[in-house]
Amino acid sequence: MTASSTKPGPTPCAPRSTGAHAPAPAPAASTPGAPSYHRLTRLSPVLGVRCAPPRRGGGWLPAADLTARPEAVCELIAHDARQGLARYGRPLRPDVAAGFGLHRFVWPVSLLFTLPWFLERRVPLLALGDVSLRRRTDTVELTVRPTGFACLPGDPASGSPQARTAADEQALAAELRCALGGFLAPVLSAFGPQVRRGPRVLWAMATDAVVEGLWYAGGLLGERDRARAELSALLAPGEPAHAPGRPGACGDPAPAPAPFTPGAGFAPPAPGRGGASTARGAGEDASGTDRARASCCLVYTVEPRDMCGGCPRVMRR
User: Fold this and answer.
1) What string of H, E and C letters represents the secondary structure of the chain?
2) Which tens digits make up the pLDDT trace of 24-83?
3) Which neighbouring-strand residues pair with 165?
4) Is the pTM of this model over 0.85?
5) Rg of the chain over all Cα atoms, to the nearest angstrom
6) 247 vs 93, which has greater pLDDT?
7) From CA 242, how far away is CA 256, in angstroms rounded?
8) For the sheet containing 163-165, what is the strand order?
9) By the 8 A CB rule, do 90 and 107 touch?
């Protein structure tokens, strides 16, 4: 899907050699999420993350600009419009270019939240002002400034002033949905007029990007099956939302996983349904399981043959 740099940058996050569920180091040993960001940067040919303050200039865009400056949204969309013209030889519809731009923002940025949860059982509590990105033709670079985080009671850093302790795994998953949803909500509002979709479809688009991002990272880590299982649990429909009862935490009675679309979309492939897997959507994995996307990226409007294998137009007929 989107791209990024494999270089960790001038101030790389410290590496970690422990397993996926090993406890995170003591608070003085690392920045929250840093070990996960370092592992992703080392493994991914398209995405690089460095722990640093937000940057501006030289192609860098502070994420906060997307809600503070409408022209920043237009700049990102123009980038995808140019890429679409180069790839397909014809212009993208403006709303399609906007949808691509939104997906290619949410896809990498969501990993700043989901990957530390997956690898360290820590959820960084990030604001738009903590992140910046630089997109190139085939790569995306991110800077992130982690401060507070949510963790489990057994985390060695749970007593840190930075930490907010969740009671159990279910509560930590709720913290993740809350933190990521709160980060994305103003971004979806900023893109909405350009994408020309209502809130329900915008959140479906965001859900697809979140799922596809961590599923991609799980593949790099050799843990795609676990990523699929944990995403399915994270977005399982019908469970009551956890209300941690702390300032800044979600106390919303809406059914989990609001505001995200319920269900990660993983299911055995239906017989007789085709569709070519592309970089915009997760198609079939090594175990023969298809993922049905919650939204359509509308690529067929510019290239009818270039349709995701998991497109709801293919999977849900």
Assistant:
1) CCCCCCCCCCCCCCCCCCCCCCCCCCCCCCCCCHHHHHHHHHHCCCEEEEECCCCCECCEEECCHHHHCHHHHHHHHHHHHHHHHHHHCCCCCHHHHHHHHHHHHHHHHHHHHHHHHHHHCEEECCCHHHEEEEECCCCEEEEECCCCEEECCCCCCCCCCCEEECCCHHHHHHHHHHHHHHHHHHHHHHHHHHHCCCHHHHHHHHHHHHHHHHHHHHHHCCCHHHHHHHHHHHCCCCCECCCCCCCCCCCCCCECCCCCCCCCCEECCCCCCCCCCCCCCCCECCCCCEECCCCCCCHHHCCCCCCCCCCHHHHCC
2) 433 333 688 999 999 999 999 999 999 999 999 999 999 999 999 999 999 999 999 999
3) 151
4) no
5) 19
6) 93
7) 8
8) 122-124, 149-151, 163-165
9) no
Please name the amino acid found at residue 190. A
Measuring CA to CA, which residue among 220, 225, 226 is closest to residue 41?
220
Nearest CA to 179 among 99, 123, 235? 123
Q: Which amino acid is at 227?
A: A
**How many other CB atoms are found less than 10 A from the CB of residue 182?**
17
- Across 210-219, 238-247, 300-309, least confident range: 238-247
51: tokens are: 């722990």
Tokens 């809600």 map to which residue?
Answer: 67
Query: Which backbone phi and psi does 50 adopt, to 5 degrees?
Result: -125, 145
Q: What is the pLDDT of residues 101-136, one digit of tens each?
A: 999 999 999 999 999 999 999 999 999 999 999 998
Count the Cβ atoms, other than its own, within 10 Å of residue 42.
14
Pairing of strands 140-144, 131-135: antiparallel
For residues 224-229, give the mean pLDDT.
95
Look at the block and give the residue holding tokens 């180069």.
Answer: 86
Q: What is the amino acid identity at position 254?
A: A
Residues forming a β-bridge with 63: none
Q: Look at residue 289 in the predicted model and tell me its pLDDT.
A: 53
